[in-house]
Each structure stands twice: as C-alpha cells, then as structure tokens.
C-alpha cells in the first residue's frame, strides 16, 4: 500500500526530525542558532560587497533561504546562506561585458538566484543527484584554491584603502597606485586582523588549556567577527568626526523587501539568457560544495544525506533568495562547522538564526552604516585563506600525477582564464585523464609463487615461469578504449617468448567485455590458432561468463579452454 506519510516525509525531511524533537534538542539548537546568527551579520554583508552588490542582498539571502532549506534539505546542521566562492562567481558574472552593459546589477543577481534554483530543481526532477560524483576532489580543490586567491587579490586593496586598480601591465602605474594607500585604513585593518586572530587562535588555545567546555570555547571564539565589526564601526564613527575619510558600507535599508515575482519576467528576457551559463556554473558548484560539507557533519553523527533531495532543498532556497531580494546561496563551510561545534541538533538552529537576523535587519540596520569595508575585507581574508590548499595540491601531485596536473591546471585556469573557464578546463582534463587510464590498463605477466597457488607479477616477485606458457593478468574491463592496447601488449610478449604454446588470460579484475573487445578477442584467437597456439581464460567472473555464453565464443575458443582457477590451467597445460 502507498504510504502517504512516508512520501511526505521524504519530500519534507523536517517532518522526520520534528517527530522525535525534545526540549533538550531545542536548548542545544537555541545556543547554536545564536552563535550562527552572530556570524551571519558580518558574513552576509561582507560576501554581498565581495560580489559587488549592496550589503542588504547578503542579509536578505540569510533569512528566507535557510528557512526553505530547513523544510526541504536533509542535512540537520548545514548552514545555507551567502558564501565566498559563490560571491566571487557572482562578481565574475556581473562584471562580464555583456551583463555589465545591461546595468542594474541587483536585478542580475536576483536572476542568477532564480536561475540557479530552477536549474537545481530541474536536476532533481531528472534524478541527477549523483552528479556530485563527477567533479573530482582534485578539480574542486584546484577551483577553490584559485577562487580563494582571486578573492584575496580583490580584498587586499580594501584593507589598504585603495580603489580597484586600472593599470593593466604598467608597473610604474602600480607603484604610484600603491603609494596612495590610506594609513588610517591600514591601521584599522591591522587592528581587525589582530582581534580576529586573537579570537580564532590564541584565545581558544588558552581556554583549552584551562579545560573550558568546547561549546563555550566555540561560542567565545566565533564572536570575533561580530566584535571586530562593532569595534571597527565605533572607531570609524570617532575618526569620521575628527575629519578622517574611511570607506564604509553606507546606508542599509531597514526592514525587508516586498516579495516580488518581477524577477520571473527578467529571467525570460535578454538578461536571463546572458546569465544562464553563469547560473549553471553557480548551481553546480553550490550543489557540489554544499553536499560535500553536509556529508562531513552527517558522517560524524551517522546521519544520512540524500543528494537528490539536497537539490530540492538548495533549489528552493535559491528561488526564495530571488523572490525575497537576496543573492544566490549555498552551504557555508565555516558557518556549518560553527553550527555543528556549537551543538546544533537540527535545522531548528538555522530557523532561530534566521529569526534573529530578521530582527537585526528590522531594527539594527542604521548601525550597519559606518561598518568599514576594510574590516569586512579582513574578515573575508581570514575566512578564505584556509581554502588555499597548496599542501594538498603538492600531496596530490606526488600521489597521482594525472590528478595533480588537473588540480594545478584548474587553479591556473581560474586565475588566468576566469572562474567558469578554469573549472570547465579542470573537468575536461579529469575526464581525459580517466579515459587515458582506461585505455592503458595495468597488465602483468605473472608466474607462480613457489610452493603456493598464488600468481604474481614477474617484475615484482620471485616466481616460477614456463617456456611454453604465457600467463597475462588484465586489471581492467575489456572495452573499445583499451582492447588495442591489450592486443599490442600480448603481441609484444609473444615476440619475447616465441616458444609459447598456450596463452592464459587471467580475468580476475575483468567485470565486463563490450562488443568491440569481444570481436577483437575472436580475431586474436583466430590468429593464434593459425600460429599453432591456444588462447585460454581463467578466473572469469559470473556476469562475464553469462555474456560470453550468449555468443559462440567458447566454441571458437576450442581447443582453448575456460578454467575456474589459474592453478587448474597451469596443471593441465603444463
């Protein structure tokens, strides 16, 4: 019988955890929600400015979107809202020539939110949740490292009180440009950096030595960004009164924008067409990053993440961002880990955080006016620097040269060509690398380890061999992509061992033989028979034998045979 309750729970995961929700869960979620809300204010404003948008778009994106995700998402601790990587991708889209000519970047940002959400929902309908497995970790690391370096490069001028340079490759121009820094802004940035490092590193270390509870340490350490913003704002107010000029956020409207569907018509016009490719990349990266983050915390609590349902949750969150005047959103790593470390049990923590932020937007917006952009830039730098994973890139290079090349090329592509081009290049290189590995499988000539029935590579072990027997182990399925390479390997070995009478192909690692490979095997067998040699197979898997039995291959193989064990083949043919 169809279970309506079960079906509704799958579509609205919030119903699942609400059934077992307890008072203690609420106490934990309340504490975590307050701590996460403290982070949402400075990060929301900072990432909006990073994207080249008014600060309120980051705040609006931190209210309704996480509420929608709480209803539809499967992660109990993922913090959805503005994130740095999405912000730099938004900035890339908005500054492209064609999009910039249209003007009204706010409207373009809303269209990006709507299209990103719609693309995610379409992917969910097409059951494309497994797409997360098609972007390799090296490509993702190379992309995030490259994007992080771009962000760092864009924020350093803010910490010095400099405007965006327009010098091209003129070194003399850059020297003049750098000399125009604002000393007051620089001192403010240094003070903000010192305060952030104190709260993020020195203070937690000291509190751990004092054996303070982890939840309290998390609460205190994560107050750093908000305290930095508050103190920097007070300092700016005092300095402004004394005649100092420091770049600030400016007026942030109080209250919320009216829910509007005007963005729907914009998305169907020229603006929507131009932004669609950018929205596709934002949707892809937002989804992959969010699922990766969600899995980290879910695994720590033996919880389950459903990738396809995550598409629905994130898609609904982005559509909510578009309708409520917010920028595109995704799961944020730092906020999620703070939420988790603060003891969040469910998405109730994010509902509480969104409610607190809504109150702040309603009543505290005038306080945001004098927030210095340099302090927000420092907050971004401290948050983004750990994403530059040079050590991981070197480790990948040492472990797997192909993955290392893809990782480095992705990073350089992002820096030189651009965000979208860099990750597209990385994905293509990864696919090419895997195709090359598939077309050049590991093949080993094997022999028997003395006094055993084990067969190992003659190049790695001291083994027994026979002049008239050639044992070859193929460590890959046989396909159109690699069968020519396998044939060439076999021909080369037969030239080295001209006295061979029997060839035994060991199929221990062969899971499939496609039509092209089968035809090549049949042709190979005919050639060997003409040369007075037999082709034999050992240790083939059941599914492979099932497919071969549907053909006349076994009849063509005679007098060659199919053996259950390699040892049986050697004993009979020896």
Lay out the secondary structure:
Elements: H1 4-11, H2 14-18, H3 23-50, H4 55-60, H5 64-72, E1 80-81, H6 84-94, H7 97-102, H8 105-125, H9 137-160, H10 171-178, H11 183-209, H12 214-221, H13 224-241, H14 262-267, H15 270-300, H16 307-323, E2 330-331, H17 333-341, H18 348-363, H19 373-384, H20 390-399, H21 401-416, H22 419-439, E3 443-448, E4 455-457, E5 469-474, H23 483-496, E6 502-506, H24 515-530, E7 534-538, H25 542-549, H26 553-557, E8 562-563, H27 566-573
Parallel strand pairs: 5-6, 6-7, 7-8
Antiparallel strand pairs: 1-2, 3-4, 3-5
Helix pairs in contact: 3-17, 3-18, 3-19, 5-16, 5-18, 6-9, 6-15, 8-15, 8-16, 9-19, 9-20, 9-21, 9-22, 11-12, 11-13, 11-19, 15-16, 15-17, 20-21, 21-22
Plain-language structure description:
With 574 residues, the chain is mostly helical. Helix content is 64%, strand content 5%. The protein folds into three domains: 14-388, no CATH class; 389-439, no CATH class; 443-573, 2-Layer Sandwich (Transcription Regulator spoIIAA), CATH 3.30.750.24. The protein has 27 helices and eight strands. Helix 24 (515-530) links the parallel strand 6 (502-506) and strand 7. It is elongated, with a radius of gyration of 30 Å.
């Amino acid at each position: 019988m169809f279970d309506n309750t079960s079906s509704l729970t799958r579509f609205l995961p919030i119903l699942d955890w609400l059934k077992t929700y307890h008072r203690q869960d609420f106490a934990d979620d309340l504490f975590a929600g307050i701590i996460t809300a403290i982070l949402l204010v400075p990060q929301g404003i900072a990432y909006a400015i990073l994207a080249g948008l008014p600060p309120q778009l980051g705040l609006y994106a931190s209210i309704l979107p996480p509420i929608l995700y709480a209803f539809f998402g499967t992660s109990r601790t993922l913090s959805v809202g503005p994130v740095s990587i999405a912000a730099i991708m938004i900035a890339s889209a908005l500054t492209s020539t064609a999009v910039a000519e249209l003007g009204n970047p706010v409207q373009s940002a809303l269209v990006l939110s709507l299209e990103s959400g719609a693309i995610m929902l379409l992917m969910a309908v097409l059951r494309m949740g497994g797409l997360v497995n098609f972007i390799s970790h090296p490509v993702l690391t190379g992309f995030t490292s490259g994007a992080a370096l771009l962000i760092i490069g864009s924020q350093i001028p803010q910490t010095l009180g400099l405007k965006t340079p327009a010098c091209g490759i003129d070194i003399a121009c850059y020297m003049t440009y750098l000399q125009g820094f604002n000393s007051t802004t620089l001192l403010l940035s240094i003070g903000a950096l010192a305060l952030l490092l104190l709260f993020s590193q020195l203070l937690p270390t000291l509190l751990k030595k004092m054996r303070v509870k982890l939840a309290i340490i998390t609460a205190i350490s994560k107050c750093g960004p908000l305290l930095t913003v508050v103190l920097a704002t007070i300092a700016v107010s005092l300095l402004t009164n004394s005649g100092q000029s420091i770049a600030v956020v400016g007026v942030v409207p109080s209250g919320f924008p009216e829910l509007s569907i005007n963005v729907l018509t914009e998305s169907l016009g020229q603006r929507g067409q131009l932004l669609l490719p950018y929205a596709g990349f934002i949707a892809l990266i937002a989804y992959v990053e969010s699922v990766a983050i969600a899995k980290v915390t879910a695994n720590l609590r033996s919880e389950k993440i459903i990738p396809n349902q995550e598409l629905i949750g994130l898609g609904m969150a982005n559509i909510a961002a578009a309708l409520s005047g917010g920028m595109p959103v995704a799961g944020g790593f730092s906020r999620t880990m703070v939420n988790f470390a603060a003891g969040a049990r469910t998405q109730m923590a994010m509902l509480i955080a969104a409610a607190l932020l809504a109150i702040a937007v309603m009543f505290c917006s005038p306080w945001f006016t004098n927030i210095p952009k340099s302090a927000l830039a420092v907050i971004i730098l401290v948050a983004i620097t750990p994403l530059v994973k040079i050590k991981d890139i070197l480790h990948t290079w040492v472990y797997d040269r192909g993955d290392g090349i893809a990782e480095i090329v992705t990073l350089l592509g992002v820096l030189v060509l651009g965000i979208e081009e860099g990750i597209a290049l990385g994905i293509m290189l990864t696919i090419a690398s895997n195709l090359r590995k598939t077309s050049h499988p590991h093949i080993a000539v094997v022999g028997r380890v003395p006094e055993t029935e084990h067969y190992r590579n003659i190049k790695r072990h001291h083994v027994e061999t026979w002049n008239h027997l050639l044992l070859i182990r193929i460590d890959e399925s046989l396909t159109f992509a690699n069968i020519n390479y396998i044939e060439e390997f076999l021909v080369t070995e037969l030239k080295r061992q001209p006295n061979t009478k029997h060839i035994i192909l060991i199929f221990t690692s062969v899971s499939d033989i496609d039509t092209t490979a089968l035809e090549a095997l049949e042709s190979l067998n005919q050639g060997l028979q003409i040369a007075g040699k037999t082709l034999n197979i050992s240790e083939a898997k059941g599914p492979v034998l099932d497919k071969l039995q549907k053909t006349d291959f076994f009849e063509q193989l005679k007098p060659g045979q199919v053996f259950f064990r390699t040892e049986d083949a050697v004993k009979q043919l020896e």
